Amino acid sequence: METLNHILNGFTVALQPINLWYTLVGCFLGTVVGVLPGIGPAAGIALLIPVTYGMNPGSALIMLAGIYYGAKYGGSTTSILIRTPGESSSVMTCIDGYAMALKGRAGAALAVSAIGSFIAGTIGVLGLTLFAVPLAAMAIEFGPAEFFTLMLFAMTAVASLTGRSLPKGLLSMFLGLMLATVGIDLQSAYPRYTMGVLELQEGISFVIVAVGLFAVAEVLQGLEMLVRGTAPDVIRISGKLWLTREEWRRSIGPIWRGGILGFIIGVLPGAGSTIASILSYTMERKLSKHPEEFGEGAIEGVAGPESANNSDTAGALVPLLTLGLPGGAVTAVLLGAFIMYGIQPGPQLFKEHPEVVWGLIDSMYVGNIMLLILNLPLIGLFVRLLYIPRAMLYPLIVAIAVIGIYSVNGSVVELYMLLFFGVAGYLLNKADIPITPLVLGLVLGDLLEQSFRQALTLSDGSLGIFFSSRITVTLVLLTAVSILWPLVFSRMKALKRLTTAKSGD
Amino acid sequence: MANRITFCFAVVLAAVYLYAAGRFPALHLSDPLGPQAFPRLLGIGLLLSAAGLLAETLRAGKPGSPAGEGKAQGAGRCYAVVVGAVIWTALYFAAFEWLGYAISTSIYLLALMAYFRPGKWMSNGLTSVLYSFGSYMIFKKLLLVALPAGFLPF
Question: What was the ipTM of the complex prediction?
Answer without folding.
Answer: 0.91
